Amino acid sequence: MKKNNNDLQHVCSFCKRNITIRSQYDMPIYDPQTGFAICKNCIKDIYGYIVEHDKRDEKSQNRKFVNSLDDILAKNKPHVIKEFLDQYIINQDRAKKILSVAVYNHYKRMKYGYTHDKRDMNIEKSNVIMLGPSGCGKTAMLQHLSKLLDIPFAVTDASSLTEAGFVGSDVEVAVRNLYYAADKNIEKAEHGIIYLDEFDKIARKSGANNSITADPGHEGVQQGLLKMMEGGVVEFTAQGQRKHPEAPTIKVDTTNILFIVGGAFVGIEEIIAKRLKTDNSGIGFGANVKTKNDKPVFNDLIHKVRPEDLIKFGIIPEIIGRLPVICTLEELTEDDLLKILTEPKNAPVRQYQELLAMDKVKLEFEHDALLAVAKKAIERKTGARSLRGILEDVMLDIMYEIPQSDEPRKVIITKDCIENHTQPKIEPISTNDTQTKSE
């Protein structure tokens, strides 16, 4: 096909018109061997039909999703969500209420967006920031929440993210993780939940002051997350390699993705306490002298956190603006850890009882033994996540020895087993007793 030749003409195989060829764009598709050709007007028409079809298809998919939203909202009122979480998470009632309302409102926002003209009013996203010590149940709460709602849920470690151009993971990896959690279904991924764990690790090192040095894993990452949290199209490569012009990309719209960020925020209580100090806490003869016993405890302070405290910690104001819901979790007490061991549906003690019941063994823990486990967990300062490790250490020899015999037995774990690794009490029992599940 010659370019810029006014005398050259060719018939379009679609519209059968004679097309004068002045450039390659007059007849973009042309096969000299068969004479098959498509002119630019036909290509424009075909593209228009495809766009129109895609819009109709998108509307029908949206209608289908809106119908499922009605079902989700009807079944998952805030009180229903909290009651479900109560079965698995001990205490943290305030955090459960905040999360239940935030998730319910998020799905109501989605319904409003699909059923109303966007020019009327735009309801902003209720992204959540969770603050609480290590092992207090942040991730567990969200995992159970995603099971209840039956929606894709992906956890990404924020501390592994780096600014574009540095070695590490780009912020888009959070959306890619959700895409795979949704079994590569883009529509499902666009209505899921992303949880960014260890979010406090990307606080800028200089806190409220700007840093003049490169900070690849901190402020730049926060800036990269801004547009994603607010809502926009995120492009990423399926294989996870860095983006380049030749790599095929997948596009996911984050407008209806709920972002929840969480972290321990170690030291935030000191920032809160400093802000709460009254004027009469200065120095001089009239000052109130505080002793160590007067120092406010973490659980009293954490619920008083404000956006300005988070900014002082090192979270940039723009991110705080996109995280309007602040959810605080308390430190777990010894009594809380005792309940976690036995009360939830998936309590660690219940899990071991079920495992040993398969070997015709009835497992029992004395109260003092459970108390010793809770005390050890408090000493380790890692909250509920250390309970399983402590039990695993104690149960290792028992789990190794028990399968050597098929004789029905009762194994009683005592305080001495926990503290000194002594052998548990083992008593023979009848077959009927093993069939009765331990409480």
From TrEMBL:
Domain of life of the source: Bacteria
One Pfam family matching this protein: AAA_2
The protein, known as: ATP-dependent Clp protease, ATP-binding subunit ClpX
Residues annotated as domain AAA+ ATPase: 124-282
All copies of domain Clp ATPase C-terminal, residue ranges: 332-426
GO annotation, biological process: proteolysis
UniProt keyword terms in alphabetical order: ATP-binding, Chaperone, Hydrolase, Nucleotide-binding, Protease
InterPro entries: AAA+_ATPase, ATP-dep_Clp_protease_ClpX, ATPase_AAA_core, Clp_ATPase_C, Clp_protease_ATP-bd_su_ClpX, P-loop_NTPase
Gene source species: Megamonas funiformis YIT 11815
A GO MF label: peptidase activity
